[in-house]
Amino acid sequence: MMSEPHVQFQPQGRKVPSKNGRTLLDLANDAGLSIESICGGVGVCAKCKVIVRSGIGSVTPLTSSEKEWLDALELASGMRLACQATVCGDGQIVVEVPQASQRGHHRLLEAGTERKVRPEPAITKVALKLPPATLKDLRADDDRLLEILARKVKGSVRIAQGVHAHLPSAIRKNDWTATVTLFRRSEIIRVEPGDTSDQVFGVAVDIGTTKVVAYLVDLRTGALLHTESMPNPQIPFGEDVIARITYATKNEDGLSKLQTVVASGINELILKLCESRDITPDDILETMIVGNTAMHHVFFGITPQHLAAAPYAPAVRTSLCVDPSHVKVNMYQFGKVCSLPNIAGFVGADAVSDLIASGLYEDRKIGMMIDIGTNTEIIAGNKNRLISCSCASGPAFEGAHIRFGMRAATGAIERVWIDPESHEVRLRTVDDSPPKGICGSGIVDAVAELFKNRLIDASGKINVSSKDDRTRKGKRGLPEFVLATASESGTGEEITITQHDIQEIQLAKAAIFTGVSILMKKLRLRASEIDRVYAAGAFGTYVDAASAIAIGMYPDVSVERISFIGNAAGSGARMCLKSTKMRDLADELSKKVEYVELAAEKNFQSEFAQAMFLPHRDLSRFPGAASRLRGRP
Amino acid sequence: MMSEPHVQFQPQGRKVPSKNGRTLLDLANDAGLSIESICGGVGVCAKCKVIVRSGIGSVTPLTSSEKEWLDALELASGMRLACQATVCGDGQIVVEVPQASQRGHHRLLEAGTERKVRPEPAITKVALKLPPATLKDLRADDDRLLEILARKVKGSVRIAQGVHAHLPSAIRKNDWTATVTLFRRSEIIRVEPGDTSDQVFGVAVDIGTTKVVAYLVDLRTGALLHTESMPNPQIPFGEDVIARITYATKNEDGLSKLQTVVASGINELILKLCESRDITPDDILETMIVGNTAMHHVFFGITPQHLAAAPYAPAVRTSLCVDPSHVKVNMYQFGKVCSLPNIAGFVGADAVSDLIASGLYEDRKIGMMIDIGTNTEIIAGNKNRLISCSCASGPAFEGAHIRFGMRAATGAIERVWIDPESHEVRLRTVDDSPPKGICGSGIVDAVAELFKNRLIDASGKINVSSKDDRTRKGKRGLPEFVLATASESGTGEEITITQHDIQEIQLAKAAIFTGVSILMKKLRLRASEIDRVYAAGAFGTYVDAASAIAIGMYPDVSVERISFIGNAAGSGARMCLKSTKMRDLADELSKKVEYVELAAEKNFQSEFAQAMFLPHRDLSRFPGAASRLRGRP
Q1: What is d(CA A69, CA A81) in angstroms, rounded to the nearest whole number?
Q2: Contact state of A161 with B320 under an 8 Å Cβ cutoff
Q3: Which of B136, B615, B554 is nearest to A595 (CA)?
Q4: CA–CA separation, B552 vs B371, rounded Å?
Q5: I want to staple B348 with a disulfide (CB 3.0 to 4.6 A). Which of A275, B293, B336, B415 is the partner?
Q6: Nearest-CA distance from A499 to chain B in Å?
Q7: Burial class of residue B629, CB neighbours in 10 A (0-12, 13-18, 19+)
Q8: Across chain A, what does the average pLDDT equal?
Q9: How close A120 comes to chain B (CA, Å)?
Q10: pLDDT value at position B2?
């Protein structure tokens, strides 16, 4: 019997064993680690890049496909296309799968990556045995409680408003045994009969403009117990942030309505979270809120009016902590609803949360966190200096203003690959359903592929003189490219990408890269000096990193330097929910992070104009992308 | 032309000039200083005692009345009966009128005496000129405000929940001039456009079991601007504290109902206070609450249940500070409703307030504060040690359980004098209206007079064998004394004082003196060592000090050592409202004051039994009273 080779896969964080005679792609898929591939494993889409860290001798040699698709640097690092490399020996093989090649990283989206933090929550419980009140011990209930508590908790502790009313019965009901819930070890927010110290729950909420995600956390262990999400119920009042600010400002009860609907939404999520663990909202002791500055302001009942006009000053930067009733959250009545701090009008608590989740603030090497949305927040730097900006990237990546644009729902084209020879188009859709439209990651892929295959030029213009039968003039004489024919599509109609669509994507990516570029210039950085790009949020997770670099949206780093941190806003919020140290750090960081108002930058217009080109008018900013282009027909 | 003598009256605190040939009584009345007198100036009621401090040569010599009514010690101190002493020279005369002899001290009742305190209120306002937000100064509104404020206020300052919502418009509305309201210089509770720093108002409220008094105070100057009062609207739910505790405990929504009605009452008073100065409740920034422990607990929505049974532990001793909405008080929404601390279940925030108003805590000499009510709080000691107790004196002094008892309303007999020779009865009634009944001070006078004239004996038994035609057996054979005949009374019916009435008063005064006596013993004090007795509250103000000593209710000190401090609970509350130093002192004192639970004292029963006698079974405890008695027929 032949001895089986031991293939170890290393997705950033996991290990997978495997067998001889098969491709690394198959083995990875067997191991439940879904690697990107669009071309069906024929070695032409180059989405399945992996790095063989050791045991290269037990893998078949490089194929011609690999030699064509991988550049010198990639080859030198041991990079292979997983569909081309077959196991052929009996040694141990260690294969690293960059996050960019993992289909599985999509699953990160809701939870986000979370760095380990020691649970040091703001909410703690202390069980106490009190001496009974007698004629020889006449102390008042509060004195009695505080004096016993002082043996266990140092420093001055006060009893929160409203808790006094429950004190007498709570301490007497279970024979003078009671449990005190403390906030930051200085305020008693609850006194319960008996010992309930094994029940300490909190909720973290990320209020996104389009989606609200809530996480139930065990505050003793720090464990994430359950996640629930829903579309932001404010959507009917305005699709994007600006529309909602307008609604809140122009209607007398606009702000109050928006606050009420989002609070009701959060209450629904809390109820579901509680049902998952057979507890009740009354067991939720703290809720930690993050969101962009406008979502934050509206949730806390603060007018977002001044965020909509220069100089876009937020009303509140510092972190807040309010009563649940103040923001209509259904949880323990004297619990706390806290927020992370904001940085600026368009760099909110969610960006602070991203920053916490990324760990960028403690790196020695330079990193850049990019959270793409209608507004894209970027924070760059390292432990010494951090600098941020917000880019008005618009809703194109959410499918808006794109002819066949749609959200990443069933049937949305999420991956596009164009064969360089035949210009044959391969698509991947959400749920592998027949295509109905195209979502953000699909359209970025499409633009990247069209450009790489010279079907559009650097200015984005569709080359209608191409002999390709998918490139043509559309109904109103405007050039377009057919992604799916009527027979291929799930709607019975053609799905095309138009000249206008391409321009929308150029505007959006130019907005982002203008921010990237200005921050890089402020930090006097070249792309090669960026050690890591942290791609946060839904779009950042779904978009293909290589495509994003190819169109000039991300800085020109090699793809393995891109880390997908998923819904980092959610994970940062959870980290801060369970650690006061992280919370205090967030407060510090929000002060420390410099903010650049792009609109006030002198060279904004020229930067933007240059960034409209694919990948950029100044190709020296994109040496990697440029060299890959030069290798093409 | 004859030179006029200069007569200077010195009521404790005021000076009055006057003329030759007239009695000191007349001159004092001319000067607006109303001196007690019941006998019409014939020198037989001895209520008009004054002390001639200098210029005794310009006053007529002692009359036989004075020699009879004043004892050796009093004569030695220069004491005279004002109705007997006539000005007869041209020198300067300085006359001191003890508070006990001032009818005017009744006017102290609502306001109470207030010792001067430097205004250092918890609430302060700071007007600020902010640099406008521009593209070159992108600070968030909160940072902007806090950074400018930091130049004027040291230490960390946070913005209270809810205030953030008003911040953006408040700072922009009046061209970046705004006024910040601070609580204890550490919390911003309001931000208003423009400069409003000349409008800083607070309210102090004394929630008495029978009466609620509210005071409007200018917190900048400390001036008392206006006073309003009303009967406690909880009365329909129970006349006394125990009845209200029962109501709160036995009815499901009892506590909430009692809280709501008293809060509504306070809101009415606040509205009236505001109308008096043309301001609105929104201008009231802080409300300081005092009351007995039960009133305090109920107002703050805390069950008073455990106050009703041994060991009578209060739920809360420490001072509270809550949001107005939490206690339904109509004032500035993010203002503060604070309380003084309690000492024990029946020595509440009102007693702490009395203590503050009395100044007893800073005396070197020993004093005793007595606040008589259904429960009588006593605090004795000096700056080194303070000791307190509560006596269940019952409602007899409010007219309850007394056959013709009534509150001190129009027609209530408030002063009684019985002629030692003729046993003729002289009465003074409230508003000098024909008598309808007898109130607390009247019944104490009556018992004292009956006893001094040996119409009752030391056990309180009415001497029916007396030849007096006002002493007789009543309808059911029980002895009684006729205070007013049918023709004298305002009701057309006789007003009598019965054997039972006398016993009620004995029980009440014994309850009080038991407390006095136990505290004296704990402090190893004789009466002569008590430098000052502070008589607080309504009854303490109205009752005749000499009569109170004669029946053995107060310790046996000379009457000029009795200071009437009026509604000291109200004045202490005002002092604490306008001075955080006094407030901190109250917190300290409430911890420092020792509490003696009389019910737990071994010798309680024997002390009580002895105190049932008039003035006491052990006459060595009442040497002054005993010597005055010995001088009688």
Answers
A1: 9
A2: yes
A3: B136
A4: 16
A5: B293
A6: 36
A7: middle
A8: 90
A9: 23
A10: 37
Omega within 30 of 0 (cis) for the link into B615: yes
> What DSSP string runs through B297-360?
HHHTT---GGGSSTT---S--S--EE-GGGGT--S-TT-EEEEPPP-BTTB-HHHHHHHHHH-G
- Best of A130, A303, A316 to mutate (most B CBs within 10 Å, chain B): A316
Residue A409 pLDDT level (bands cut at 50, 70, 90): confident
Tens digits of per-residue pLDDT, A249-266? 999 999 999 999 999 999
Residues A451-473 have pLDDT tens digits of 999 999 999 999 887 677 889 88
Q: What is the mean pLDDT of residues B45-52?
A: 82
Chain B positions in Cβ-Cβ contact with residue A303 (cut-off 8 Å):
165, 168-169
pLDDT tens column, B283-305? 999 999 999 999 999 999 999 99
CA–CA separation, A531 and A525 (whole Å) = 11
pLDDT at B202: 98
Question: Could you give the residue ranges of the DSSP H alpha helices within A278-403?
Answer: 293-299, 349-358
Shortest distance, CA A169 to any CA of chain B (angstroms): 9
Q: CA-CA distance, A278 to A272, in Å (whole number)? A: 10
Put simply, the answer to whether B326 touches A599 (Cβ < 8 Å) is no
Q: Residue A270: in which H helix or E strand, if any? A: helix A254-277
> Which of A164, A322, A599 is facing B316, going by the closest CB pair?
A164
Q: Is the backbone peptide bond immediately before A341 cis, with ω within 30 degrees of 0?
A: no
| Residue B293 CB partners (closer than 8 Å, separation 6+) | B304, B307, B314, B342, B344, B345, B346, B347, B348, B349
pLDDT tens by residue, B345-360: 999 999 999 999 999 9
What are B574-600's pLDDT values in tens digits? Answer: 999 999 999 999 999 999 999 999 989
* Whether A167 and B597 lie within 8 Å, measured CB to CB: no
Give me the mean pLDDT over the A296-309 stretch.
Answer: 96
Closest CB to A303 among B159, B168, B316:
B168
Task: Count CA atoms closer than 13 A to B398's CA, side-chain side.
Answer: 16
- Please, how many CA atoms are within 13 Å of residue B598, restricted to the half-sphere of its CB? 30
The whole-angstrom distance between A103's CA and the closest CA on chain B is 40
Beta carbons within 10 angstroms of residue B476's beta carbon: 7
E strands present in B172-210: 177-183, 187-193, 201-207
Residue written as tokens 């038994």? B461
Please give the backbone phi and psi of residue B154, each rounded to the nearest 5 degrees, phi first: -85, 160
Distances (CA, A) of A266 to A199, A272, B400: 21, 10, 58
What whole-number distance in Å separates Cα of residue A202 and Cα of residue B484? 74
Side chain identity at residue B309, one-letter code: A
**Angle ∠(B287,B293,B295) on CA atoms, nearest 5:** 60
Considering only CA atoms, give the Rg of chain A.
27
**Which pLDDT does position A106 carry in this prediction?**
46
pLDDT tens digits, one per residue of A264-276: 999 999 999 999 9
C-alpha torsion angle, residues B509, B510, B511, B515 (rounded to 10): 100
β-pairing, B386-391 vs B376-381, is antiparallel
Would the CB atoms of A159 and B300 count as touching at under 8 Å? no
Do B202 and B577 touch, CB atoms closer than 8 A?
Answer: yes
Buried-exposed string B537-575: b where 16+ CB fall within 10 A, e elsewhere:
bbbbbbbbbbbbbbbbbbbbbbbbbbbbbbbbbbbbbbb
Phi/psi for A63 (5° steps) reads: -95, 170
Q: What percent of chain B has pLDDT over 90?
A: 67
Query: E-assigned strands of B467-623?
Result: 471-473, 479-484, 495-498, 532-536, 562-566, 594-595
What is the rounded average pLDDT of the residues B225-244?
92
Q: If contacts are CB pairs under 8 Å, which of residues 465-494 in chain A contact chain B?
A: none
